[in-house]
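It is worth pausing here to work through a concrete case rather than discussing structure prediction in the abstract. The textbook approach is simple: state the sequence, then state the predicted structure, then interpret. We follow exactly that order.
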Amino acid sequence: MHVPRSHPRLLLLIISTTALLTALFAAPLPVRADPFVLLATYDGVINPVSAEYLHDALASAQESGAQALIIRLNTPGGLDTSMRLIIKDITSATIPVVVYVSPSSGRAASAGVFITMAAHVAAMSPGTNIGAAHPVAMGGGEMDTAMKEKVENDSVAYIKSIAEQRGRNVAWAEDAVRKSVSVTEREALTLKIVDLVVEDMPALLKQLDGRTISLQSGPTVLHTADVAVREFPMGLRLELLKTLSDPNIAYLLMTIGTVGIMAELYNPGAILPGIVGAISLILAFYSLQSLPVNYAGVLLFLLGIVFLILEASVTSYGLLAIGGVISMLLGSVMLIKTDVEFLQISWSVILPVVALAAAFSLFIVGMGVSAMRRRPATGREEMVGLVGVVKTALTPQGQLAVHGELWEAICERPLQPGDRAEVIRVDGLRLYVKPLSKQTEA
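Step two, the predicted structure:
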């Protein structure tokens, strides 16, 4: 393009316009994302699964620019180490974290008290309760007086520091640990344990709108009146690990695994019981590693299954079966050694599992023992005991028809065509027979 030298202003205008159009079309236009809050729902025991899930939820909320992370919580308590990891994430968060104890009839007990009080905003749904945070032994052993005092004092100091940081009721927080006190949602609001009591999520968002939250980076104001709520799913992997951490599931897996392995040993080549048993046992070991297991209970449980299996192969007139059931019941009761209710195995699980394990063991192993005692159906051994018809005179050698086949046969006594003879021995392709008496024949 030719531009006269007498028009420098025109040249400058063309260059500027071209650069502006290039910048507009080359650079993507900024997209204004709609404001939202991220919702993480957790219902269950506080354990490594919950710590990982809430950590991932907070990281996702911070990276995606959410207004806040809302944790909808319902928990009977759980492990101290996992609880402290969750609180560490909350206190270092760059966005507000709201803990909402929900639904109605839900609770924030034990470790849930610490987590709720550590939130920037603590809310509860009508019909919920909070408290009973006294520490208990989770490792299956009894703590002596000195150790109990140390653990209790440590928990009191921790919850008092959390309450002071969030401006909550320090005296009640101490009583929740030392005296295991518990209060309803209305009492919690009156005592300044929580900040809000709301019926549902829309009401919670409305109450949060305009609230100033103090973060480590400085104060921030929530704008949540009309924001969208995005769910943060737990994911298949964490859902599976959460299910496996249930003591009832661990107990069921151990039963299936043990019975499956024993059934495979008594029925070599069945394959399926062995595969199912091995997988179940490995999953059971994973589940039991985070539970206060009493190994005397494990041994009694396994001994009970062994007794049931022996009952199928040893004549004990029912004594082994009775001993097996009693041993399994005692082992089941002793398996998890703790006073914590949510870590104990339910009787509604124990009784059906013991009954089914006993029936399955007697049935499967009984079939295997019967098969081992049964006369072979193939090969040379199968011929012994069969009865054939003489086709040519056995004097002493001739031909015998067995199963529609002609065999060379030898008999010590002479037999005529049409006589019947029983096979007593097989030597290669030759049968040794004896005359079939009329009584036997009859």
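Step three, interpretation. The mean pLDDT is 84. The longest strand covers residues 36-43.
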